[in-house]
Amino acid sequence: MVNLPVGYGLILAGVLFALGLVGVLARRNVVFILMSIEIMLNAAGVAFIVAGSHWRQPDGQVMFFYILTMAAAEVSVGLALVLQMHSRFKTLDADAASRMRG
Amino acid sequence: MYFILYLVSAIAIISTVMVITRLNAVHGLLYLIVSLLAVAVIFYILGAPFVAALEVIIYAGAIMVLFVFVIMMLNLGAHSAQDEHRWYKPRMFIGPGFLALILLAETIYAMRYTGGIRTNLISISPQQVGMELYGTYLLGVELSSILLLAGLVAAYHLGRRHYHAQPRERV
């Protein structure tokens, strides 16, 4: 029987989430920002799975299913915005779209 | 089993670091797929085979293919590499890296209370997950279908090539 410290999986999730956060804050390319958001969502999913396997309940996996659905909806809208931004500004720089005018 | 788990965790972390430091978007995407596959192996070891399969099929399969489609549609030429060189300065990682490191240190500090608690890993079958998903959480499944429909409509609306709005100057 394999047994594992419960903190191990949570620290792994924390490290992945922190890396995604650094990616969102430091990169200026919109595609990389979206990828970093995916990393952060996935790290949250890891935390849910670790908690679910600790209490031996399927609820953690159900929550991962919701995260998956939300990530799919988020990435489709985000990538459509990237396409729209590239056709308007001819660049992927996040700073180019800093003026909110209609 | 422990060795495999630690090895796969190291692969996940290293490939995630590679994702956020690449200049070429396609390279970052390929490293992200490696990271997601490593996380799928972690899920399998943690006793969640259904979610491990979903991670490979939907995350590494469907969502990453969306990214590839968009990168292909953008048709980034040689100038994108020069742009990226101009935007990407390693010193930009210092501030966010420092702040994220503080948050991570706090998380690890909070985890010290769980040090003695260990999880006996057992596998939770897809049948149990399905019973829970379509029993207790049925309302959530319906709501996520509405969310996906909203995402579809929004992507269709935003993805139109000729958007009838005032033409604006390049910023």
Commentary on this structure:
The complex is a heterodimer of chains A (102) and B (171). Chain A contains three helices and one strand. Chain A is mainly α and 102 residues long. In chain A, helix 1 runs antiparallel to helix 2 (30-55). The mean pLDDT of chain A is 89. Chain B contains seven helices and one strand, in the order αααααβαα. Chain B has helices at 2-21, 25-45, 49-74, 79-87, 94-110, 126-133, 138-158, and one strand spanning 118-120. In chain B, 71% of the residues lie in helices and 2% in strands. With 171 residues, chain B is mainly α. Chain B starts with a helix and ends in a 13-residue tail after the last helix. Chains A and B meet through strand 1, helix 1, helix 2 and helix 3 of A and helix 1, helix 2, helix 3, helix 4 and helix 5 of B. Strand 1 of chain A pairs antiparallel with strand 1 (118-120) of chain B.
Number of strands of chain A: 1
Query: From the helix content, strand content and strand pairing of chain B, which structural class follows?
Result: mainly alpha
Report on the biggest sheet of chain B.
none
Count of helical stretches of chain B: 7
Q: What is the gyration radius of chain B calculated from CA atoms?
A: 21 Å
What proportion of the residues of chain B is helical, as a percent range? over 70%
- Biggest chain pair interface: A-B, 79 and 93 residues
**Helix count, DSSP H or I runs of 4 or more residues of chain A:** 3
Keywords summarizing the entry:
heterodimer; A: 102 residues; mainly alpha; 3 helices; 3% strand; B: 171 residues; 7 helices; globular
Describe the secondary structure blueprint for this structure.
The complex is a heterodimer of chains A (102) and B (171).
Chain A: E1 3-5, H1 6-26, H2 30-55, H3 59-89
Helix pairs in contact in A: 1-2, 2-3
Chain B: H1 2-21, H2 25-45, H3 49-74, H4 79-87, H5 94-110, E1 118-120, H6 126-133, H7 138-158
Helix pairs in contact in B: 1-2, 2-3
